[in-house]
């Protein structure tokens, strides 16, 4: 069944057209104005057939994307990847080591549930924006902006479609 979902999933570009991607980028920029963390959003429609047959799961794919996209390469080790694998209906959050011990797995799962709720309602853009806002709330708690010390943008704000 999973194999067929990966063969016949609609393209991420269908759910996230160019104007939607720009609104998501704006949400990332707005969130990052509140904290010194870095948020990256990536979406993948499906996995290649060979990966599905080998049993590669969304979490492993998200962790590989986190490394490949260099989300770990931030000064404060506070990069966060929100990864969406459409074929598996999975949202994964991968956070850098600077957030370990600060944000619990339950808090990350709560963010995923917010995204899942809006995705089920057929609102993919709003789902991602709500997830970004929730991640920004967590980052603002642990890495607030410091007045007079502007934070540089270390990761791209424009979402990445990994097709």
TrEMBL record:
Gene3D superfamilies: 3.10.310.50. InterPro entries: TPM_dom (IPR007621). Coiled coil: none annotated. Residues 14-137 form the TPM domain. This is TPM domain-containing protein.
